[in-house]
Structures are given as structure tokens and as C-alpha cells.
Amino acid sequence: MTTDTTTAGIASATAGATNAEICIAACADTYRESGEILAHAVGIIPALGARLAKLTIAPDLVLSDGEAFFLSGPPQPGDPEAPQPTIEGWAPFRRIFDILATGRRQSMMGASQIDRFGNQNISLIGDWARPTRQLIGVRGAPGNTANHRVDYWISRHSTRVFVPSVDMVSGVGNDRAREAGLDHHHLGVIVTNLAVLGYDDEGAVTVLSVHPGVDPQSVADSTGFPLDATDAPLTRTPDAEELRLIREVLDPRGTRTREVAG
Fold this sequence. Notes:
This protein has helices at 7-13, 19-29, 44-55, 93-101, 141-147, 174-180, 216-221, 240-250, and strands at residues 38-41, 63-64, 69-71, 87-90, 105-109, 113-114, 120-121, 124-126, 131-134, 149-154, 186-192, 195-199, 205-210. With 262 residues, the chain is of the alpha/beta class. The strands form four sheets. It has a six-stranded mixed sheet, sandwiched between helices. A three-stranded antiparallel sheet has the order 2-3-4. Strands 6-7 form a two-stranded antiparallel ribbon.
């Protein structure tokens, strides 16, 4: 396996698929067995992943405009012949809580910190009484993680994000969920710019795959707790049709490179 982690090296190793496109396909795969649920995707790569899933492996996936309307399909700015998605439903903000509480929703969120058991922090950095950084608060993370599947997207895999202990718990990790007896808690995967991570039987973060062109040791070195990526397989590369959809239909302007170079 090559150890060239530069953009050029990654693109070459994936026979044309860029690292951003591999990440989009990995995000799409999180919906492979979801069925008819509402997709909640935060970030460019996760949003493109949900839209790619809708057009390929998860046609029953429900997409929204990010506010209150359910759409018949994703916007397709690269296909002038494609019909504009029609509004098929309306769910004001208060209805989202009903959907969330019944588990008919799946989220992919970001994280400022994640620890070994998937506890997520988006609230603050530093001591609770005198934080060095005030972030966005817990938002919907507690309710999301208590009620339906949650995946995470990390665009820059580093020891600043993957930490031994989070400074505050926003999204509930596997250890705390077990202690609290959360029956519907379900952490899926963590897609990063280097790898796809999952959780072992103890609920601890493990490596499911390493992206083509990425040195497995760099995954371990970029994580603030022990993580062995030595024998991890390669993350799959998107097929020709998926690449066409990403490049020509869903993201012809290349917005995906704003989150992941290449």
C-alpha cells in the first residue's frame, strides 16, 4: 500500500476517484439499509452522500430542503433536463421532534471532539466554568443520539478531534448510553478524510477501513487514543455511475473540495 497521502497520490491510487468522492460514497453507504426515514445530513460531503444514496441504493430515503419541506428528490444542478424536485410534504420544526422521537430519522453530524466511546462534543472547549472556546451548544445532539441512528463526519481527522476525553458531552457515546439504558441509542460509523471508523462489541471506536492512498499509521497517529489500523481493508471507491452522478449531476461546481481537497 502506498504511503503517499497527498491529493495527487490519493487520486492516483483510487483510479480517478478523489478522496472527497470516496468520502461521499462512504456517507451514502450509511443509508444502505435505512429504508423510508428522514435524512438529516450536516455538511457538504454528508449532504451529497444522502443525495447520492437517494439516487442509487436508498430510493425510499426522505430528503428535505433543510427547513420544512420534504422533496421528491435531490437538486440536480448539473442536469438541465432533470425535473426540479417537487414538495411532497411539510413538517414544521415542532413535527421534527415527533419524527425524531419515533426513530424515523437518521443523522450525520459533525464533531469538535469525539472520544473512544463515541461521546461527541460541539459545545465548548476547556473547563466548563471557564471554557477557552464557546461553540454552538449541544443543539439536537442529545435527542438525536438517544432516539435514532447517528453517524459522524470529520473532514480533518486529527488528535484535536479524536481525544481521550471530551470536554463536554453533547452526543451520547456508547458507554454512557449503556449506563443510562438508552434502548434506541445507535451510533453507526464515523467517516473521516482518512478512514471509516466503527465500534467494537464494547462500544469502543475501531477502524473499519482506510481510504485508498492513506497510510494506516497516519490514522493511528492522528487519533488521540489507541487505534490499530494495521489490518484494515481499503474503503471502497465509488463506481463509474456514482462518479458520474457526483461530478455531473449532484455537484458539478465541485463544492465537495471545500471540505476535502481532491
